[in-house]
Write a structure and sequence with these properties.
By secondary structure, the protein is α/β, with parallel strands linked by helices. It contains 22 helices and 22 strands. Bound molecules: ligand C2E and magnesium ion (MG) (2 copies).
Length: 605
């Protein structure tokens, strides 16, 4: 009888063996057991991740044809799970039905195999030994099988631990995405393997969730973490197998896309923008967020991973500046702009102390009475050297750096104080813009309340302008709006139509005004699309019992269109540009002649 030798060899993992590749270690176990056996041929099959099938991982002496046949064999729990299965003659065993012929053709007649598992539930591998004649195992054979099982088990455990350690060292704990180190390695490998084919480049993207910090601060870190995990999942689903998404920390991700043209990289970025800006439902909160993406391309923008990543980040900042929720390709001019931005930030820090800000006021006209129904307060920064810096330029910086909080307080306080004086000239309402960050400041309501009290104005005469994007978290936003309303102030949604397309939330907020964004008014007489949007907003607002204000009205034609569709109020250069407090006073003194000049009373039907 073909059996194993009596002297089972000792086999321990030495240090040098531990560092050998896993497959070599499995091979050495197979060779060792084969050597100790009398003509046995061994194999080790590893279970796949889902524990459904087995893959041949070491079978150096098994006939290839036979190896191929058993590769991928399904795991049958009743067969593989408990103890060794010792088939002395496969011709007489039903377990081998369907395999007998192929086994015989390859000189296999007897098979003993033993499962290796970390528990009853999970099979890790199967160790098998085959003979060319029928044979029964002796006591020593059983000991050798046991040793083979133990060694294979040790090798697998060791390998898995190593795998785990190397995974932890190269992946981000929260999202399981590759970390910065692995990402850099992948970029450098991709650069090394890159062949110069026309229009096929490597794209490195830097991606950042817009206003994540605020979500984290207002809804708490555990929700912030879940949002990051969800976003990571969505991000992965936008990419191909060959691409890599990585988390750099916080809400910053990087992406490597292989073999793309500029057009293809743009398409991927568009897909990401779309998928990541769909609402997230987390622990009862419906959260809206968007992302900004910067893209650099190898070889045109840089030669090394560091350089490409930095340029992708510069492009991402540009995307933020362009109003977020968009992507930008790197352009060398952005570097200069970043420098300018830092300079502006330094100037901005000093502006409040130096009392450089002032407020201008733009009249808002009631289209039924043709009277001024109020004014919107708009901040102005006449910088001694830079001249007037546009709020569109400095507000985002103030917002990002947190300076918007004291600046916003100054605006609230100044507008309320000046309203007192303007009331004498017939102005009964001031609209004040507040920024995203200010809106989510925990003490916003308290500050508004204090300012109203200190300036002694009637809260009914103040409108707070917020934008759609501030309502990203419907629950929290409606609580803030409700508290503000309880103070007696009015609420207006500014730049309406430029934010999220979901209008359903409107019903949930107790708002008083909707301001149609000026981008829809600009071409209202030319573009069918803009016409439709504007009229839909007017109709919808009417149904909800909310007043509509059109922004940026510059021509009589626009005004006529709005009147025709019964828009309630309008504001724009046609009536007046934003004016300083003194200019406004003069404007009001000349009223209505100033307004007549703007053809407001030209009530042609
Ligand atoms: P907004 O609140 O939508 O203000 C309307 C903007 O449109 C103002 O720009 C105004 O000057 C401009 N505008 C008014 N009529 C017309 C017109 O007929 N044609 C055109 N082309 N533009 C017109 P401005 O003052 O440059 O402000 C830009 C944005 O900066 C504001 O948009 C607002 O979002 C923000 N902002 C301004 N002041 C403040 C402030 O005190 N606090 C905060 N948080 N944001 C402010
Ligand atoms: Mg506004
Ligand atoms: Mg606006």
């Amino acid at each position: 009888m073909n059996s194993l030798t009596k002297s089972s060899p000792k086999f321990e993992f030495s240090k040098s063996q531990k560092n050998r590749p896993f497959s070599e270690i499995l091979d050495s176990i197979v060779y060792l057991v084969e050597k100790a056996s009398n003509g046995g041929i061994c194999s080790i099959l590893l279970a796949n991740e889902s524990n459904e099938s087995l893959t041949v991982s070491s079978a150096p002496n098994l006939p290839i044809e036979f190896s191929q046949m058993i590769n991928g064999i399904a795991i049958c729990p009743s067969v593989f799970f408990n103890r060794p299965v010792l088939v002395s003659d496969i011709h007489n065993d039903s377990l081998w039905d369907g395999y007998k012929e192929m086994a015989t053709e390859n000189g296999i007649r007897c098979c003993w195999f033993a499962p290796i598992g970390d528990s009853q539930q999970k099979l890790l591998a199967v160790f098998s030994i085959f003979f060319d004649k029928p044979c029964f195992p002796t006591e020593e054979d059983l000991q050798l099988i046991e040793m083979a099982v133990r060694l294979t088990d040790m090798a697998i455990q060791h390998y898995q631990t190593e795998e785990k350690i190397s995974f932890i060292a190269s992946h981000d704990e929260l999202t399981n995405l590759p970390n910065r180190r692995l990402f850099d390695e992948k970029v450098n490998n991709a650069i090394r393997d890159h062949t110069n084919v026309k229009d096929k480049m490597l794209g490195v993207m830097a991606l950042d969730l817009d206003r994540f910090k605020l979500i984290n601060d207002t809804l708490g870190h555990s929700i912030g973490d879940l949002l990051i995990q969800n976003a990571a999942q969505r991000l992965k689903s936008c990419l191909r197998e060959t691409d890599t998404a990585s988390r750099q920390g916080g809400d910053e991700f990087t992406i490597l896309v292989n073999d793309v043209s500029e057009y293809e990289a743009a398409k991927i970025a568009e897909r990401i923008l779309e998928k990541l800006s769909k609402p997230y439902f987390i622990k009862g909160h419906e959260i809206f967020t968007t992302v900004s993406i910067g893209i650099s391309l190898y070889p045109i923008d840089g030669q090394h991973s560091d350089d490409l990543l930095r340029k992708a980040e510069v492009a991402m900042y540009q995307a933020k500046k362009e109003g977020k929720n968009n992507y930008q390709f790197y352009d060398a001019k952005f570097d200069q702009m970043t420098y300018d931005r830092l300079e502006l930030e330094a100037e901005l820090r000093k502006a409040l102390e130096k009392n450089e800000f002032t407020l201008h006021y733009q009249p808002i006209i009631n289209l039924s009475t043709n009277k001024i129904s109020g004014v919107e307060a708009l901040i102005r920064w006449p910088h001694p050297k830079l001249g007037y810096v546009s709020p569109n330029r400095f507000i985002p910086i103030a917002e990002e750096t947190g300076m918007i909080v004291p600046i916003g307080e100054w605006v609230l306080e100044t507008a309320c104080r000046q309203l007192k004086q303007m009331q004498a000239d017939g102005i009964s309402m001031v609209s004040i813009n507040i920024s995203f960050r200010q809106f989510y400041e925990p003490n916003l309501v308290l500050i508004v309340k204090q300012i109203i009290k200190e300036t002694g104005i009637n809260p009914q005469n103040v409108t707070i302008e917020i934008t759609e994007s501030m309502t990203m978290d419907i629950e929290t936003a409606s609580a803030i709006i409700t508290e503000l309303k309880q103070l007696g102030v009015k609420i207006s949604i500014d730049d309406f139509g430029t934010g999220y397309s979901s209008l359903s939330y409107l019903k949930k907020f107790p708002i008083d005004y909707l301001k149609i964004d000026q981008s829809f008014i600009r071409d209202i007489n030319k573009s069918k699309y803009d016409k439709n949007i504007a009229t839909t907003i007017i109709m919808m607002a009417r149904n909800l019992g909310v007043q509509v204000i059109a922004e940026g009205v510059e021509t009589i034609e626009q005004l006529e269109f709005l009147r025709h569709h019964r828009c309630n109020e309008a504001q724009g250069y046609l009536f007046s540009k934003p004016l300083s407090a003194e200019q406004l006073k003069r404007f009001l003194e000349n009223h209505p002649s100033e307004l007549e000049k703007s053809l407001l009373f030209d009530n042609r039907k």
